[in-house]
Amino acid sequence: MPDLIKVAKFGGTSMANYEAMNRCANIVKSDSDKKIIVVSATSGTTNLLTTLIGVKNPDDKHQIMNQIREKHYEICDSLKYKEEAKRRVAQLIDDLEKKVISSKAATSQYSDEVLSFGELISSTIFSYVLRESIGKKVEWLDAREIIQTDHNHGSAEPDIESIEKNAETVILPHLKGSCFVTQGFIGRTKSGVTTTLGRGGSDYSAAVFAEAVNADVLEIWTDVTAVYTSDPRIVKKAKPITEISFNEAAELSVFGAKVLHPATMVPAIRKNIRVYVGSSMEPHLPGTWIMKNTKEKPPIRAISLRKNQTLLTVHSLDMLYRHGFLARLFKVLSNHKISVDLVTTSEVSVSLTLDTNAGTPGKDFLPKSVISELKTFCEVEIEENLSLIALIGNNLHTTSGLSGPVFSTLEGINVRLICHGASSHNLCFLVDQQSAEKVVQKLHERFI
Ligand code: ADP
Ligand code: ASP
Ligand code: MG
User: Fold this and answer.
1) How far is the CA of 9 from the centre of ligand 2 (A)?
2) 222 in ligand 1 pocket by Cβ < 6 Å?
3) pLDDT in tens, 128-171
């Protein structure tokens, strides 16, 4: 049988220290089909770099730089070829320091350049860990040679056509007998400027790599043993899911399950690539297979929670018996690149939810200028600190008798907006942030 191509991605906690990296190396070693290894920055490093971008005082900058230097040198100290690895890491950290010390203003381009060092450093160290562990050639690959993106710093969009061409020349001819270690999260524009795909974006990078090389399997190794029926940090009795469909997994991630970046399923669906989610700490435990179709199709498979949602309600008598109002409203939002999630309308008002976590980090997600523009043709009301809860499953739009039990479970909770019927895979609603976790726990207890 010809070799399969598997792309394996290891997240931040899987890269946390030498022991964690070594566990990942053993996972790679156990299966010669794992040929492209995509890694995140070591845990906490992207947060440190984000803080670094925001500080102005040189002493504070030095203090953070030292923290970054020490935590990575400490991992290198456990390597056989520690001096060589340390030299490579020191070079990267010196480059980062020069950039940070000489910076005047934190532009979004500068932010992405700084953030990219997290993955550049971790992948450099992991390539040494892997070389010392497996018997075949390990190539360190700069992901930016492959992942071409647009200019949207902080949440850049990969250009799959160019990426496929790059993979064809840089990766595919060299897959036999070697294994590539590369970075998640980072890319580069056509003109060579570094970009990032957004927080948690390494999953998406790995999926894009998988699509570009026509991989057979995409593996996401993380700190939970599987995709669960709800975030196990919130619902203690959440259960691991053995199999879930692409569509359900896509909805689950879009509606807040951090275990997968929301865009991860898009390349997997395009090329019908099966996705496996497992724990790098307990790789022997069964994980989750995500595939086109599953044998079982329960109406409610999982419950997700997305915090920090804003509800924007616009009201105008102009809507009565007129056309064009919605087009005008969405034009304003689209001109400002504000993406809308849920929408409900009545005769004279429209409510829509906006994800405060989305958009470019550091930029106001709903600028005052947008509100002023909207106020020229309608009244605007904004409610913040809401959470979006989604029931994810199958045929939810045609399952009768579902909403009664769901909403009776929510007795005493003020449900602000409900969306049911647009998707066969979700039923979602907004509640205030304070009661959200309790609501998820109650629903899980009742339905799963
Ligand atoms: P990594 O660093 O490996 O990318 P993340 O922290 O991004 O890992 O994602 C894993 C986390 O996702 C888990 O620790 C868990 O708290 C959270 N999570 C949220 N929803 C779910 C879910 N339905 N199933 C599993 N994990 C979930
Ligand atoms: N290192 C990046 C982050 O922490 C990307 C990732 O881990 O997926 O968001
Ligand atoms: Mg993640």
Assistant:
1) 11
2) yes
3) 999 999 877 999 999 999 999 999 999 999 999 999 999 999 99
Choose among 195, 190, 119, 194: nearest CA to 155: 195
Structure confidence by residue, pLDDT tens digits, 111-126: 999 999 999 999 999 9
* DSSP class of 15: G
Q: Rounded to the nearest 5 degrees, what angle is found at the Cα of 400, between the Cα atoms of 311 and 406? A: 45
* DSSP at 42: P
- CATH code given to domain 6-223: 3.40.1160.10
Indicate if ligand 1 lies below 6 Å from the C-beta of 227. Answer: yes
Rounded to 5°, angle at Cα 43 from 42 and 44: 115
Q: Which atom of ligand 2 is nearest to the CA of 197?
A: 5
The yes-or-no verdict on residue 362 having pLDDT over 60 is no
CA distances from 404 to 243, 399, 407, 412 (A): 28, 11, 6, 14
Distance of CA 240 to the CA centre of its chain: 20
Q: Where are the domains of the chain?
A: 6-223, 301-447
Centre of ligand 3 from the C-alpha of residue 390, in Å: 20
Distance CA(336)–CA(101), nearest Å, equals 33
Residue 193 to residue 198: CA distance in whole angstroms: 16
Helical (H) or strand (E) element with 140 = strand 137-140
Of ligand 2's listed atoms, the one at least distance from the Cα of 261 is 8
| Domain 301-447 fold | VC0802-like (3.30.2130)
Rounded distance, CA 275 to CA 290, Å?
Answer: 5
Q: For residue 3, which phi and psi values (nearest 5 degrees)?
A: -60, 145
Whether residue 320 contacts residue 399, with contact meaning beta carbons closer than 8 Å, is answered with no
Both tokens of 441, joined, read: 């726990």
| Alpha-carbon span 247 to 180, nearest angstrom | 30
